[in-house]
Amino acid sequence: MSQSTIIALLLMTASGVAISLQGPLNAMLGRGIGSVLGAATVSFGVGFVLLLVVMLILGEGGSLLRLRDVPAWLLIGGSMGALYVFSAIWSVPVLGVLTMTTMLILGQMVAALLLDHFGAFGMVVREISPTRVLAAALVAAGVILSRW
């Protein structure tokens, strides 16, 4: 296995841990300030400031000047992140962390199957196979088991 593959696997594992922690932490923040939407706003604000500082430290601030050169529709990714943060804050107290995370993963897998199948956004085409569908079905079974 290549070094970049190992780093990617470790990075995504750490990100998975972070996503599991983010929901309940933000839900506590929402309870503390009395607003789910306010907590989502603060969460995004903290993330924005952190990324901005890192970007400037690494000398990549000039990349923001090239925003005018990309199609405006590419900016919708931020709204998808906002949907996730808001949904997680609202859903964790209702579903619990395990079910919320499992549903998140199921949604990601279903979307990933379709994105791969169609080679969306310039990705390499990867056909939907019985094995890949089974992987998603097992996560769906995990959703059911997480509620019992």
TrEMBL record:
Keywords: Membrane, Transmembrane, Transmembrane helix
Regions that span the bilayer: 36-58, 70-90, 96-115, 127-145
Protein name as annotated: DMT family transporter
Cellular-component GO terms for this entry: plasma membrane
Keyword Nucleotide-binding: no
Keyword Transmembrane attributed: yes
